[in-house]
Each structure stands twice: as C-alpha cells, then as structure tokens.
Design a protein that fits this description.
three-stranded mixed sheet; 549 residues; single chain; mainly alpha
Length: 549
C-alpha cells in the first residue's frame, strides 16, 4: 500500500515538474518571439496599452459634469500634445498592421500570443483616451468615465479654439506665436529629412547589395523632391500638409532603414565567428589558387580601362537658399550620359551613333580606342571562361561551406565568395554597357536605357569607328577580330595545350587557356591564325601584361 502511495506521489511530482518545465519553455519561447518581433519593428515595447491621460475630480458629480472641451480649457497646451500623440499612433498603427499582414515570424512558437497582444494594442490607436475619475478619501465612493478624442476633434479645436479661450486671447496667441511655431515646425521637418540624409550618406559606401545603391539614390531623390520645397511653402502651422509630409518622411525613413538594416545584417555575418571559421578553412585550401584569383581580379578590374570615356552624373542639386538641408551625393555611374529629352529620343533610335558622339568624341583617339575595343572582346571571352572555372572551384568547396544563412547567398553571393578569396567575376563585369539618362527639370520624370556591349555590338562599334578614319589609318587598323569562333578554333588547333609549358585541359580540367598574339597588337601584330597561339594563364601573365594602360 505504501508503495502504491509513493508511486502515485512520484507520478504527481513528475507531472508537476513536467508542467513547470513546459511552462518555462513556453515562457522562453514567448520571450524570444516577442523580443525578436519588437526588434524587427524597431520598438522597445508595445506602446499605448493604457489610457493616455487621467483627470481627477473633487466629486462624483464633477465627473458627470465634466465636458468634452473642459480637458483643453484647463490645459490648452494639451491640444498640440494630443495631436502629436494621435499622429504617432497612426504611424505606429500602420507599422503594426503592415507587420500583421505579412511577416517571417508567423510560424514561430508562441507567435499567436504576441499577435494577440499586437491586435489588442491596435484597439487603442484610433483615439486619445482621457479617464475622468473621482474617489472619496475612504474609497467607498467612486465614479469615472472615459473621453475619447479623435484627430477630427483635435483639429476642430485647433482650427476654431473659441470654445476653449476668449477671442482676445486667441488673437494674441495667433499674433505672437504663429511665426515662431511655424519656423520651429519647418526646422523640425528639416531635421527629419537631414536625419535620413545623414543615414544614407554614412551607409552608401558600405552597401553590399548592388541593387540597394540605386534604390537608396531613388529614395533620397524622392525625399528631396517631395519635402524640401514643400516644407518651405507651408505657411500655416495647422496645415494638414504637415501630417502628409510627416507620413511621407516616415515612409522614406522606413525604406532607408530597411536598406541599411539588411546590408548591416550581411556585414555583421562577415564579422561573425561562423564566417571566420569558413574563411580559415578556405584560406588553406585556396593557397594553390591564390595567384590565379589575383590574376582574374586584375582582369575584371581593368575592363573599364578598355571601355570608352567615363561620363558621370552630376551631384544631386538642392534648391535650398538657407542650407537647411544637408547635401546628398548620388552614386557616380560610369559610362552614363545625362541628355535632354530630344537627344534621348534620338539616341534610342540610333544608339551606336550616339555612343560615338558622347563616349568617343575625339577622332584622333580612334586608333587607340579601336585597339582597346578589340582587346575588350578578347578579355570578356577570357573572363567568361574564367567564370566557369571559378564556378567549378565553388562546387568543389561546397563541402567546406556549410550553414551559411540564406539571406547571404540570396543578396550577396559574389561578395561572400570574394571574401573567401575567389576572384569576383560578377555579371556586371561581363555585361559592359553604356547608359543614357534623361531627367526633367523638376525631377518628376526620369527615363533611361542601356546599350549592352555584346560581342556583336562591339564589332559594330569598331567597324563604324574604322569607317570614320582616313584611308591610311583605316588600312592600318583594319584586321580580323578575335571572335569567339576564332578563339575556339585556335584552342582546338593547339589541342587545348599551352605552347610554352605544355600544360593542357587534359591534365588540368580547370586550366584557363588564353589566346596570345605572338607579335603583340601594340607592336603591329594582327589577329590572324599565324600570329595566334594558345597559352595557359600563367605563361601568358609572365610573357606580358595583356591589358593596355
């Protein structure tokens, strides 16, 4: 019998402990979910869960007689406070509602509990709640009521404060404070704009996601366009335009913060011990490929030297006579011509003609530029071959590259491998292009188009440049081009074997082979079969620097 009692007690004790453990686990899951969600939203805690203000009366009857406008009669300064609080609540509500529609936490344990708290929070965001109450000294008599003020009510009292003040007081207030408050309001909004500009300026050089640079420029341009002159033009402290502009600034801030946060998240990973471990492992394996990667990086970085003249955009110009707004410099985009609407339309119809006009304006430089364009075809083909070899190396390294967060590979795969020591041949390096851009005077209309420099387009450009030369210069520059077909033919002719060292793709499948001019082009060598040979990259590198200065 005693054994049975002990057994039952043990079962009960185990159940109690299990329940306590489960409750503790749930508490931790709830805390983790709530902290993660609040961090995601940029909030220290859920706000506005209690009434916004309290008024204590001297009697229960005073509570019943407390009027709607009395709260502001007793404390006129509360009008602005209530209005500002309601504006914050609207922004706060937008943030929460947007989060509930779509987020990455919905599958987390205890998410439903946090979601319920957020939904409860939303119930308090449409009004400014004031509790009017009375309690006797003994606590036996008690009376209270809640007055809910909406933005409509507040705006009505701001527009017509007669119910809460005398006419003479109202006129005196308008006369003495209107300009001061308006100036203050202006500068408050300028400060909000400057805060975003400062953030953008400090982060623009740190961005690792390529698309985010253009997105950041776009958001700042939109911010300037919609705020700088608009703030200046508002002459009424009570204008609804403040809310419109404030909401717009808040929206831009969220977008800029989102850009900086997702890029900072990637940078934080690169500073982590997890990435350091992967890099340490790869460093020892990469030693034999170090020279190859350095060679390919040099080629990729030198492409722009073979690619026409560099035409850049102007800095963002802000029409701000008092310098209230700090400047923001757009990214310098190489090989981009800022043109008029008329030129833009003509360039769309005759792109090669306008490429020559804007990027090759000096006819005396045509021979040198033709030579560089011919070499550009060769180098792009070499980089395409190198990219395939690098991709093969990446596959070999996959067993050592584990537990990499998906957001890294989705947003900065090239940067990830580059930090491990792999040569970085991005699609942008292989897709050389000229760009024409048109922006209206007000900045509201913007159009652009690009002309990718494919092998066919480069050859067309070379032929047109050659046709513009004198007969003597034309004869000197006219020669066969290093096409993909010719490159492949020379490799096959030489049995995919380096003519210097004898190494081949049969011995080393990932060997990068290049086509070399026996007599260099710079010394009059032509691109013909008897002046071409197959070299491995090491021998070609040791022979001479292929890329022109």
């Amino acid at each position: 019998m005693e054994f049975i009692i002990i057994f039952v007690l043990v079962i009960i004790l185990v159940a109690i402990i299990t329940k306590a453990i489960n409750e503790e686990i749930q508490k931790k899951q709830y805390k983790k979910a709530k902290v993660s969600i609040l961090n995601h939203l940029g909030l220290p805690y859920l706000e506005y869960l209690t009434p916004d203000d309290y008024v204590y009366c001297k009697s229960a009857k005073a509570v019943d007689n407390y009027t709607f406008v009395q709260y502001f009669k007793e404390n006129r300064q509360r009008l602005e406070y209530v209005s500002n609080t309601l504006a914050k609540k609207r922004q706060y509500k937008t943030l929460l509602e947007s989060f509930l529609k779509e987020n990455e936490f919905s599958a987390w344990p205890m998410y439903s509990k946090v979601e319920a708290e957020i939904k409860e929070n939303l119930k308090h965001l449409d009004t400014f709640d004031v509790v009017i109450s009375y309690s006797s000294p003994t606590g036996r008599s008690y009376n209270n009521k809640t007055i809910k003020y909406t933005q409509f009510h507040v705006n009505a009292l701001i527009e017509d404060p007669a119910p809460i003040m005398s006419k003479s007081e109202y006129n005196q207030m308008i006369k003495s404070k209107n300009k001061e408050q308006l100036d203050k309001k202006h500068h408050e909004y300028y400060a909000l704009v400057n805060e975003i500009v400062d953030t953008a300026n400090s982060y623009k050089d740190k961005l690792v996601i390529k698309e985010d640079q253009a997105e950041l420029d776009k958001n700042i341009a939109s911010l300037f366009d919609r705020t700088v002159n608009s703030i200046k033009k508002i002459k009424d402290i009570d204008s609804d335009e403040w809310t419109v502009i404030g909401n717009f600034i808040s929206n831009i801030k969220q977008k800029v913060d989102a850009i900086t946060e997702r890029n900072q998240r990637i940078l934080d990973y690169y500073d982590s011990s997890e990435f350091a471990g992967i890099k340490t492992t790869c460093n020892s394996l990469m030693e034999s490929q170090k020279e190859f990667n350095e060679y390919i990086n040099e080629k990729a970085q030198s492409i722009s030297k073979l690619f026409g003249s560099r035409v850049t955009r102007n800095e963002t110009v802000i029409d701000d006579e008092y310098d209230y707004i700090r400047p923001y410099k757009k990214s310098i985009t190489p090989f981009t011509a800022e043109v008029s609407a008329q030129v833009f339309a003509s360039a769309e119809n005759s792109p090669i003609e306008y490429i020559i006009k804007y990027f090759y304006p000096n006819k005396d430089q045509y021979p040198e530029q033709i030579q560089k364009l011919q070499l550009l075809v060769e180098e792009l083909e070499t980089l395409k071959d190198a990219k395939q070899i690098i991709d093969n190396y990446k596959k070999d390294y996959q067993q050592y590259i584990t537990n990499v967060p998906s957001y890294i590979m989705e947003n900065d795969e090239d940067g990830f491998y580059s930090r491990l020591g792999f040569a970085n041949i991005s699609e942008s390096a292989l897709t050389v292009e000229y760009k024409f851009n048109y922006t209206s005077n007000g900045g509201m209309a913007q159009r652009n188009f690009t002309v990718p420099m494919t092998e066919e387009t480069i050859i067309e450009l070379i032929n047109i440049l050659q046709s513009k030369l004198s007969m003597a210069s034309f004869a000197k520059e006219q020669r066969a081009l290093m096409t993909s077909k010719l490159r492949q033919y020379i490799k096959e002719r030489d049995d995919f074997t380096c003519k210097f060292c004898g190494n081949s793709t049969y011995k080393e499948p990932n060997l990068l082979l290049e086509i070399d001019h026996i007599i260099p082009v710079a010394k009059g060598g032509v691109t013909e079969e008897n002046n071409l040979q197959t070299l491995c990259w090491k021998c070609n590198r040791s022979k001479s620097a292929k890329i022109l200065p």
